[in-house]
Amino acid sequence: MDGEPDLWIGGSWRHASDGGTRDIINPAHGGVAAVVDEATPDDASAAVAAARAAFDDGAWRATPVTERAALLERVADLLQRDKESLARLETTDTGKTLAESRIDIDDVTSVFRYYAKLVGAEADRVVDVGDAAVISRVVREPIGVCVLIAPWNYPLLQMSWKVAPALAAGCTMVAKPSEVTPLSTIAFAHLLEEAGVPPGVVNLVQGSGATLGAALTDDPDVDFISFTGGLATGRTIAKTAATHVTKVALELGGKNPHIVFADIGGPGDRDSGWDAAVDHVLTGVFLHSGQVCSAGTRLIVEESIADDFVAAVAARAEKITMGDGMDAASETGPLVSEQHRDKVESYVRLGISEGARLVTGGARPDDPAMADGYFYLPTIFDHCDRSMRIVTEETFGPILTVERFTTEAEAIALGNDTEYGLAAGVRTSDTARGERVVRALRHGTVWLNDFGYYTAAAEWGGFGKSGNGRELGPTGLAEYQEIKHIWHNTAPGAAGWFKG
Ligand code: TXE
């Protein structure tokens, strides 16, 4: 960063092989926040080769699990020591508020602590084959060299969901953050080095997806690719990986329904759940300006309360304090880049041309203090339907679409009518109905009378085109492991099948 080498390959820090760099932009004001090295395909090959050598050498994967767990705990301690500086980097890079960035660093820490404990508690499985002479057991081994590709909305958080279980399992890896937001991951790599990660076990390269990312995913020495990002890129990576039969895990976002039943009660009646429902719908879609894979972008609300409910959400949306994430008063920040705001604006134009009714937003804020940043107002479209692309496609911005239903079956059908399936929310005061609906929804995470929460101990991932595989929880560790069955005959004898 800013003249220091940023690529960590085989345990040493170096500049890009062709000397190339990239300007990192602060989205709150459009200025250059830092200049970082831009890795080339040659750097990608060097990083994979370093990870391959560190894996094949065998020392890391043979490191006792207690030592690997201790290393993860050291990383967690260092993350907490540097929490404030890491949070500031995250806000500088992504635009999210400092309060959110601090929560992110706490969450990253808890992922490391969770996998330190989980891997330490893992046990082999003994299988009874009905022969006292045979010891048959199923063991887990590291899958090998992993390529870890993260997006820009939760740069360090998403990377930690990959690095922590990969390290715990005994894998070696090449990490590639988004070229838009590499700063926190570079600082994190320095912490990994300080914590004692052996040379070549973790390698860091940053640069363009189209060149560097493509080179990493097309390298035949890679055993596993874990990717979080957009659907189109996920498809490209899966096709490339198929040529090498490389295992792939994909988290590709969502178009997440938030279903609200009329039985939540009436406006102003706190105990009945109305205010809480309005608050969660608002937070679910406008937190981090909607740049959240699990954002509740589709409000599916019962017709009898729809007018009042949408008006209540719109009134709150208009009061959201937007500004530079470094300002403690800001409740939400800008979009991550000018290019991304262009995309969001094109979806708003599309929504209007598709006939949706604009309730609020649909413009950049007019405050001159935000004129140079990539801000966009919270936007709500009412009277939407499934023929509209703003309802079916991931806009990844502060856009809420509203659909209406009259029966429970219709609500479920609408909630499932998406090619994605990452997350969904349901709000009702009827417990039995709530349980029926959450079981009927085809999404990887479903919140009942809550929205957006997750824990390192529970799996995260999607149905349908939201991807495949799971992160977090025990499954998030299993992704980085091969399963081996060992059959040991302690009283060896002939097979005795062939008589001659
Ligand atoms: O993502 P990309 P983009 C969605 C969201 C957004 C859209 C596009 O809808 O508007 O995706 O965003 C790397 N081989 N999500 O273009 O391209 C890239 O460098 C290998 C949802 O920014 O998917 C970055 O590190 N890697 C999502 C990472 O992929 C490649 C979060 C993600 O970038 C590559 C972000 C290639 N050919 C966007 N091309 C979520 N699931 O939360 C790019 N990359």
Automatic annotation (TrEMBL):
Keywords: NAD, Oxidoreductase. The active site is at E251. Residues 13-486 form the Aldehyde dehydrogenase domain. PROSITE patterns: ALDEHYDE_DEHYDR_CYS, ALDEHYDE_DEHYDR_GLU. InterPro entries: Ald_DH/histidinol_DH (IPR016161), Ald_DH_C (IPR016163), Ald_DH_CS_CYS (IPR016160), Ald_DH_CS_GLU (IPR029510), Ald_DH_N (IPR016162), Aldehyde_DH_dom (IPR015590). Pathway: Amine and polyamine biosynthesis; betaine biosynthesis via choline pathway; betaine from betaine aldehyde: step 1/1. It comes from the Bacteria. Belongs to the aldehyde dehydrogenase family. This is Aldehyde dehydrogenase family protein. It comes from Mycolicibacterium iranicum (Mycobacterium iranicum).
